Amino acid sequence: MAPPPRVVATEAALALVEKLKARHGELMFHQSGGCCDGSAPMCYGRGDLLVGDSDRLLGEIGGCPFYMSAAQFAYWRHTQLIIDVVPGRGGQFSLESGEGIRFLTRSRVFTDDEHRELTAGEGETLLHG
């Protein structure tokens, strides 16, 4: 059995991704650490944000890579990120700014079994249980 994905997206978020891809081409996401625009999933043209050794690829949504800094991942590793959209203005650097809706990260805690599947061979221990 494959481990659960670390990041998924709602149908509404995937529809916005497709709209932005049609307008801007290939995209990428990075979960903001809260600097300028709060903690939010930021959407960029692919390659417009340089990722480094301290960024972790969590998976893809709508065919777009989704990254998070390793330091922030330490806080979120026990959760599945669920990317959604809500009314409002996107972050000033995120491509959905001005669309009248913005990306939002929701989450759910992995079950103990899911966490074991995800961390098999990584040397992590369960955070609960």
Descriptive account of the structure:
There is one protein chain. The chain has 3 helices and 7 strands, in the order E-H-E-E-E-E-H-E-E-H. The protein has 129 residues and is of the alpha/beta class. The chain has a single domain (7-119), classed as Hypothetical Protein Aq_1857, Chain: A. The strands form 2 sheets. Strands 3-2-5-4 form a 4-stranded mixed β-sheet. A 3-stranded mixed β-sheet has the order 1-6-7. Strand 4 and strand 5 (64-69) form a beta hairpin. The longest helix is centred in the N-terminal third of the chain and has 14 residues, at 11-24.
User: What is the architecture at the second tier of CATH?
Assistant: Sandwich
The proportion of strand residues reads 25-35%
Low-confidence stretches: 124-129
User: How helical, in percent, are the residues?
Assistant: 10-25%
Total count of helical runs of at least 4 residues: 3
Order of helices and strands: EHEEEEHEEH
Instruction: Give me the CATH fold name.
Output: Hypothetical Protein Aq_1857, Chain: A
User: What is the C-level CATH assignment?
Assistant: Mainly Beta
| Class from secondary-structure proportions | alpha/beta
First-to-last CA distance? 22 Å
Largest sheet: 4 strands, mixed
Number of domains: 1
Strands side by side in the biggest sheet: 3-2-5-4
| Overall shape | globular
Rounded radius of gyration (Å)? 15 Å
